[in-house]
Amino acid sequence: MTPERFQKIMRVLGKRQPTLSVLMDEVNKPHNFSAILRTCDAVGVMTAHAVPPKSGELPTFGSRAFEATSGSAHKWVKVQPQTDAVSAVRELQAQGVQVLATHLSQRSVDYRESDYTRPTCVLLGAEKWGVSDAAAEAADGNIIIPMFGMVQSLNVSVAAATILFEAQRQRLAAGMYDMPQLASDDLARVAFEWAYPDLAAEYQERGEPYPVLDGEGQMVGTGQ
Ligand code: SAM
Predict the structure, then answer these.
(1) Measuring from atom 16 of ligand 1, which residue has the nearest CA?
(2) Residue 128 labeled ligand binder
(3) Fewest CB atoms within 10 A around its CB: which of 7, 67, 132, 150?
(4) What Enzyme Commission number(s) apply to this enzyme (predicted)?
């Protein structure tokens, strides 16, 4: 770990947005899944919740399409598996997060009308079926990117990018990238995991706290 590499990690973590996330409901194509993770990384999203497709498991990190499209973003964005969209929506809402479903319904609004400076999760639907009516109803709001062409919908990763960069725009204007949004203990924990992933796994296995790092990423003491 060079000091420069560690400083880059700290710069990136200083702009992470723990109160912004996505929930992918059965997004099954590896290139879409990984393109969404790549956008999450660029915007500062830390967690991508994902309901696996009924037909199988979540797109795997080992596949060539996945690795090629994600640009290693899967290392920097946590994929949190969820059993189903409706219970994931309710769990997020119980934590004070507004869930915005990308879904055309009577109550849909233009995605630019939503306030993304609030704790927010963007619910994205499967390529074939979109967001289920049940999940869209459970969500706090339904948002839509206006379409004026012959085709009815965008590719899911394009829709995700469009909405997440609107969230970034609003959060930039609100100064949310100017100071760390992560609590200092979370920042120190994730910094260690990013700087020393193999070692972090060993500490986790032993149930021991991570060592303390100095400003150059060197281990200087034992954690509490
Ligand atoms: N046949 C599906 C349907 O009826 O919803 C189309 C799904 S679309 C290919 C896949 C996902 O991309 C959607 O569930 C939504 O998350 C996102 N999406 C695509 N176009 C969108 C738009 N114009 N506004 C908001 N989200 C969109």
Answers:
(1) 124
(2) yes
(3) 150
(4) 2.1.1.34
Domain count, the chain: 2
The reply to whether 10 and 29 lie within a common domain is: no
Does residue 224 fall inside a structural domain? no
Closest residue CA from atom 17 of ligand 1: 156
> Token pair of 13, please?
């973590």
What confidence score (pLDDT) does residue 224 get?
A: 64
Residue 76, pLDDT > 60, answer yes
Q: Identify whether 9 is part of a domain.
A: yes
Four-residue CA torsion sign, 88, 157, 79, 77: negative
Smallest CA-to-CA distance from 11 within 171, 217, 222 is with 217
176 vs 16: CA distance, rounded Å: 9
143-184: pLDDT as tens digits: 999 999 999 999 999 999 999 999 999 999 999 999 999 999
CA distance 62 to 143: 33
Range of the domain at 197: 1-15+180-219
Residues with C-beta less than 6 Å from any ligand 1 atom? 102, 124-125, 127, 129-131, 144-145, 147, 153-154, 156, 159
